[in-house]
Amino acid sequence: MLFGDKILKYKNEIISDLQTLLSIESVSGSMPQECDKALNFVMNKAKEFGLSSERVTDKSGHITLGDKGKLCGVLSHLDVVPSGNGWSVEPFALTQKNGRLYGRGIADDKGAALISLYCLRALKDNGVEGKNTLRTIYGISEEVGMDDMDGYFENMPIPEMAFTPDSDYGICFAEKGILQLEVSSKTNDSKLINQFASGRAVNAVPDSACAIIDTSIYDEQTLIKLADESDGNFEFRNTIDGLMIKSLGKAAHACEAEKGYNAAAALVDIIADTFDKNEIGSLCNFIDYAINKETNGRSLGLKMSDYVSGALSVNLASLNIDDEYAKAQFDIRYPVTVSGEDVLAQFEKVAKRSDLEIKVINHEKPLYVEKESKLISILSEAYESVTGEKAELYSTGGGTYARKLNNNGVAFGPNFKGDDIRMHNSDESVDENNFFLHAQICLEAMYRLFTCE
Fold first, then answer.
1. What whole-number distance in Å separates Cα of residue 264 and Cα of residue 279?
2. What is the predicted pLDDT for the residue at 451?
3. Which long-range contacts (CB under 8 A, 24 or more apart) does 241-244 make?
4. 0.70 exceeded by pTM
5. If we measure between CA atoms, which residue out of 146, 213, 210 comes closest to residue 409?
6. Residue 408: closest CA among 385, 440, 378, 383
7. Are the CB atoms for 59 and 148 separated by under 8 Å?
8. Is the Cβ–Cβ distance between 415 and 446 less than 8 Å?
């Protein structure tokens, strides 16, 4: 019997605690008290289990087992993105149906966070004597820049070996660089767009957008005709403030922007096709000629790829225009062998044509861990012992806590390829059998890290 199988003893308790944890509306940035509540829930559970827990900063904490040897870590986050639209179940609750577990955070990353806590409990309850120190580390601002881990590691040492269960199986040894930008004009210089609102998270494809514009009957008919001919989904309504246009798209994580349908980009597209560039304003004009509905950066002069991590991607994450301002946010994922400074310089060069201001919101350098490292060997063996299959080594455009570990950590699980988890989308869910298969793999990996020489 593998040690990892011992986690199944706690299955009913895990489900019960998932119900509580998923009900906490810990949305990054907008719900700080709920984020704090989620972190306190895990810290207090650890104390119930007889484990040592500590709040390190206002946005981070850890639970520790052992006090010798190498420091090994498991990092996960308890914050989530907003629920968005289109759910068939309550987003902030655990729903079990058709063999799946539903709820915002079940796949990203509350489910895995709770499992890592129960793995420590299993090690303690079974009296395992470790040769190392094992620490589960939790944060509550991963979705909005990971400053939680910046603060944490200002106070605590970086583990010598670690993983974060915040991606897919097998083992993610490389993560693309992440460059998140805010682009703005000094004023709203559009002659017709009174309001434009879209996007709530910088790392997500917006699934809805709404604009109010001043237009004639003729232009309104042109807009409706273009909307009918496009691949988008639009609604029109006349209001006292002007013509209201709603655009509906499909949400996706910014690291897989091509899997979504950008409602904001689609709405800018039909507006730009109807009106002159001087009428739509400098920011929308820039979006039209430099982005349009592309996700590969071609019109920005940024289409590129490498053999380690694949192609660069660009996502228009938000666009907001009001009486006095016009600003947009972009999320760029660039290959590990590319300079982020070069990407930024090219973006700025193109944006200068429209006299726009560029501000860097967040820049995370790429991650790369050697495939032959001891850490990858331990995780590979744990995965194969539980599943009977070899762990694929892969790269991702996603950003995880692993990039905060000075190349001492990787992303490992919790999600299985082929399982449509709908991360950052409506009806986020995981196959229940897969969820507990991850629990077994996670415990086996933590056991091996805790006991290795």
1. 18
2. 97
3. 241/194, 241/195, 241/212, 242/194, 242/212, 242/213, 242/214, 242/215, 243/212, 243/213, 243/214, 243/215, 244/210, 244/211, 244/212
4. yes
5. 146
6. 378
7. yes
8. no
Could you give the 3-state DSSP secondary structure of residue 1? coil
Residue with tokens 């509550």: 140
Non-local (6+) Cβ contacts of 234 within 8 A are: 227, 245, 246, 247, 248, 266, 267, 270
Structure tokens that stand for 317 in this block: 């994450």
More confident residue, 216 or 360: 360
pLDDT on residue 94: 98
Of 175, 173, 161, which is closest to residue 364 (Cα–Cα)? 175
Instruction: Name which of 315, 419, 405, 423 is nearest 366 in CA terms.
Output: 405
Q: What is the DSSP string of 278-331?
A: HHH-HHHHHIIIIITT-SS-TTTT---EETTTEE-EEEEEEEEE-SS-EEEEEE
Q: How far is residue 295 from each of residues 264, 287, 300, 312, measured CA to CA in Å?
A: 13, 12, 10, 9
CA dist., res. 111 & res. 115, Å (int): 6
pLDDT classification of 217: cutoffs 50, 70, 90: confident
Grouping H, G, I as helix, E, B as strand and the rest as coil, residue 112 is helix
- Three-class DSSP category at 370: coil
> At residue 161, what is the residue type?
M
> What CA–CA distance (Å, rounded) separates 207 from 276?
26
Average pLDDT score over the chain: 95
Say which residue, 318 or 201, is predicted with more confidence: 318
Question: In Å, how far from its chain's centre is CA 263?
Answer: 19
Find, among 203, 181, 143, 146, the residue nearest to 329 by Cα.
181
Distance CA 293, CA 287 (A): 9
Q: Which two tokens stand for residue 334?
A: 């660039």
- Neighbouring CB atoms inside 10 A of 306's CB total 17
User: Cα(121)–Cα(170) distance, rounded to whole angstroms?
Assistant: 25
Q: The tokens 């509580």 sit on which residue? A: 20
Identify how many contiguous H helices and E strands the chain contains and give both numbers: 11, 26
What is the tens place of the pLDDT at every residue in 391-423?
A: 999 988 887 999 999 999 999 999 998 999 998
The DSSP secondary-structure symbol of 161 reads E
> Which tokens hold the place of 315?
């996502």
Q: Give the pairing type, strands 193-198 and 326-334.
A: unpaired
Please report, for residues 14, 115, 116, 158, 286, the alpha-carbon distance to residue 164 in angstroms, rounded to integers and kept in the order given.
19, 12, 10, 13, 37
Distance CA 28, CA 205 (A): 16
